[in-house]
Design brief:
The chain has nine helices and eight strands. It is of the alpha+beta class. The protein has two domains: 50 residues; 182 residues, Aminoglycoside 3'-phosphotransferase, Chain: A, domain 2, CATH 3.90.1200. α5 runs antiparallel to α8 and α8 runs antiparallel to α9.
């Protein structure tokens, strides 16, 4: 959007949301990171319009990252490390709900997996079993973006200039964002060995840390594919999910 004085910003609209909850949750996460020099956009306006929230944020420089290369991955890993412990002084920010045993609000639904086919039903049983051990909400004081994929990264001249779309941000374990990134590049071209490098990072996580993070993203992506895409897309996400369900 462009104001009368020529100032440009980004206008977003979130239906069925509360301005108060957005300020106290996702927008507070982004602001906590911004204060530490993290390239998250400043919030210029938050307004409740009926059932929806209108948010105006700073327009950051750069364009969307279409292909993850090694230089960008290096910067992403650094950004992720900077999210560690960032919400230690913000105990009121809600923790991430992984929805391993219950449904999210329009996402992470279990029943579509139970009904779709044998493979998806087996995955749902594994997700629920992981949830029985892990508990519903994440521990930790890290800032978590929750939708950390290349489409939400901005870059210019090879340098990452911004991370956008903080609508789901919460408190928890920053390592979820790198698991999300791994799923995000599953359907994209990357530079040679970038995916292998990211897999090596995930392989270094303790099993009791990685399993619930992987279960959450497996449920999230397979459920979405079952309800919105083709059976071929479902198999595509099942192939990735099953790599770590053993």
């Amino acid at each position: 959007m462009r104001r009368a004085d020529g100032h440009r910003s980004v206008l977003t609209w979130r239906p069925h949301a509360s301005a108060e909850e957005m300020r106290a949750g996702p927008l507070a996460v982004a602001e906590a990171l911004r204060s530490a020099g993290y390239p998250a956009p400043a919030t210029e306006l938050v307004a409740q319009i009926g059932h929806a929230v209108v948010i105006v944020q700073e327009l950051l420089p750069g364009t969307k990252v279409d292909r993850l290369d090694h230089r960008t991955l290096d910067q992403v890993l650094d950004l992720n490390a900077r999210q560690a412990g960032r919400l230690a002084d913000h105990p009121g920010i809600p923790a991430v709900d992984l929805h391993l045993r219950d449904d999210g609000a329009g996402y992470c639904l279990h029943e579509p997996l139970r009904r779709h086919n044998r493979r998806s039903a087996a995955l749902e049983r594994w997700v629920a079993a992981v949830g029985a051990d892990a508990g519903p909400r994440m521990a930790g004081t890290d800032a978590v973006h929750l939708d950390f994929h290349p489409g939400n990264l901005l870059a210019s001249g090879g340098a990452v200039t911004g991370v956008v779309d903080w609508d789901g941000a919460a408190r928890g374990d920053r390592r979820l964002d790198l698991v999300t990134l791994r799923f995000g590049i599953h359907a994209q071209e990357t530079d040679p060995d970038v995916t292998a490098r990211l897999d090596d990072v995930l392989d270094a996580y303790p099993e009791d840390v990685l399993r619930p993070l992987w279960a959450h993203m497996s449920l999230r992506m397979v459920d979405w594919a079952v309800r919105h895409f083709t059976p071929v897309d479902v198999e595509h996400w099942l192939d990735l999910a099953e790599r770590r369900t053993g």
